[in-house]
Amino acid sequence: MKRFNRSFMTWILLFALVSGTWWIPTMAEEVFLEATREDFQKIPIWVLDFPYVGTNHTGQLNGYQDAVDVLKADLTRSQVFAVQDLPAARVPFPESKCLRPQILSTAAERGITASTWGRIIVGQANTASPGLIFDACAFDTGNKEFLVGKRYYSGTVSESLLRLMIHRWADELVYRYTGEPGIAQTKIVYVSEQHRGRELFVMDYDGYGPQQVTANGFLNLMPAWHPNRRFIVYTAYRGHKQEIVQRELASGKEDILVSAASLNITPAFSPDGKWLAYASADSGNSDIFKLNMETRTIQRLTTHRSADLSPSWSPDGRHIVFTSDRGGRPQLYIMDADGNHVRRLTFQHDYNAAPAWSPRGDWIAYVCRIPRQGFKLCRITPDGRQAVQITKGPSIDDSPSWSPNGRHLVFSSVRRGASHIYLIHRDGTGLERITQNGTHHSSPAWSPL
């Protein structure tokens, strides 16, 4: 059984979205928590109220009332915070200042490390002025000091903009405690079955706001992101040709990178964006090639008579992991980026394919066939010494793709006859379905930061 599925930049904002900091931390040396350690203890956080202020939110936001829920979900997904199950509490917010509310004494008594609150202004109070403001504050209860205060502003009012502001605030909190950027503003590109073909869509990392990218009625498969998020690349089946196409998301302009009657699949950019690795059967069987994105010259990396496909780059760009059946069954192999020093990586199970190298470099996720369980997701260290099964249960799991912080995976899964996109933490917890409509969504790819 051969499985080839592998797997918008943030949609261009037509207005200015500006953020400002009201409160600047002291110049003391910053201390960050290492959130990737297995023994990391999540930070208890209390999300208080974010009430609406102004006269226009009911009409312009259609009564949107989910701001607190969106923030709680972002913080929970981060795996940095443990959101406390406490009721939201209204906090006074005079003159756009982060004043310490009296209620924080309750947080301290309960051992809650962090608290956040704010307000949402739609228009100005008692006026009909347009505009959207998201004010947010954070207090570190443990150190008894303010962490940060932010104001986000847009001249345009929309639900998607408000969600973007909330995502930015969640990412700010993650950065303040870990020193690493958050992932709440990232995107996922994926394939969706439509009436005339399979088209590409882009959605927020939590599944909100899917936007159609292609609409040509062909089979558009296996999308991947350019490191700068301006472009995606994918395989398009057009007539008798299988083309690898690069598309600029803002303009829709397309550039055919590889075109032939033979198989051309599983494209993947190098971390610096200078090379594109892909599989092609132009020589008869499927081999791994890489395309120089500046000169458009092509270099063949594998010459084995077996089928080689699904290349994925190491974060430093020096190695490529790929799938090959040169040993009789599909297994993972690693080679240098020039095609030398090929070595077999996986030995457990009779089918291992579709590798994805973590941006941290510490793990490679892949599809593994487990006896009496079927196709699941596994991960293995690049030296092959440790392998872990990630997913379980009655499903067919495929096309893993890492979040840019290496803590989560997005993948497609067939459950009860329908294929949908799911998120999961790399330890196998936090499973969450993020596509809701339709019956076939597949080949997700998580954007860079």
Name a few traits of the molecule.
single chain; 449 residues; mainly beta; Rossmann fold; Neuraminidase; 2 domains; 7-stranded mixed β-sheet; 4-stranded antiparallel β-sheet; 4 helices; 42% strand; globular; disordered N terminus
Question: Secondary-structure blueprint of this entry?
Answer:
Blueprint: E1 17-23, E2 43-47, E3 52-54, H1 57-60, H2 67-77, E4 81-83, H3 104-109, E5 114-122, E6 132-140, E7 145-154, H4 159-178, E8 187-193, E9 198-204, E10 211-212, E11 219-225, E12 231-238, E13 241-248, E14 254-260, E15 264-269, E16 275-280, E17 287-292, E18 298-300, E19 308-313, E20 319-324, E21 331-336, E22 343-344, E23 352-357, E24 364-370, E25 374-380, E26 387-389, E27 396-402, E28 408-415, E29 418-425, E30 432-433, E31 441-446
Parallel strand pairs: 2-4, 2-5, 3-5
Antiparallel strand pairs: 1-7, 5-6, 6-7, 8-9, 8-31, 9-10, 11-12, 12-13, 13-14, 15-16, 16-17, 17-18, 19-20, 20-21, 21-22, 23-24, 24-25, 25-26, 27-28, 28-29, 29-30
Helix pairs in contact: 2-4
* Count of folded domains: 2
Task: State the low-pLDDT regions, or none.
Answer: 1-19, 21-33
CATH architecture classification of the largest domain: 6 Propeller
What is the terminal-to-terminal distance? 34 Å
Number of helices: 4
Summarize the biggest pleated sheet. Answer: 7 strands, mixed
- Give me the count of strands: 31
The computed structural class is mainly beta
Envelope shape: globular
If you average the pLDDT, what whole number results? 88
Helix fraction? under 10%
Q: Which fold does the CATH topology of the largest domain refer to? A: Neuraminidase
What is the radius of gyration?
Answer: 23 Å
